[in-house]
Design goal:
The chain starts with 10 loop residues before the first strand and ends with a helix. The longest helix has 20 residues. It contains 6 helices and 6 strands. Strand 2 and strand 3 form a beta hairpin. The protein folds into 2 domains: 130 residues, no CATH class; 37 residues.
Amino acid sequence: MKGIVLNNCDGFAWDKGNINKNLDKHGVSKNECEELFFNQPLFVACDEKHSITEMRCYALGKTDKSRLLFIVFTIRNNKIRVISARDMTAKNGGFTMKKQNKIPAFKNEDEEREFWSKHDSTEYINWNQSNVAISPKLKPSTKTISLRLPDYMLAELRTIANKRDVPYQSLIKIFLKEQIDKELQIVN
């Protein structure tokens, strides 16, 4: 499958079945999983042979803090559903070429998550046949909040936003992101 596999993805599918399992098992948060899909390079390989009811794909990439991850995912209704996420091993990053073992059939996502937590992907996936993926429609998960601002501050934000030709709500997100990044650099 070519890099177009993610072209129609527009978000992420999280529920109680997958939201905390990777954090509990491997210390990989939901946010880190999402970050991987927005950073380049992102290598994706899909397993058409073992994708009976839905396509299974595998990704190698990095988080915003350059943590290297291996992720198993599927796509449901144009949403990326993460099944398993863990740190990439040295073998994953090496794209070694050797005879691949057969990926077993899994009864459910928990069984698949358990399998990938114990096995190196290079023993099952030929990463030399992976593609660099781009996801032009993909958006991170969001949460609606209520924010109370003084009238004068909102007026100033709107003035700045108009000068930059962006919606003022987007400008607030830009300012928040810049400040968060700045604060995190001070801490680290």
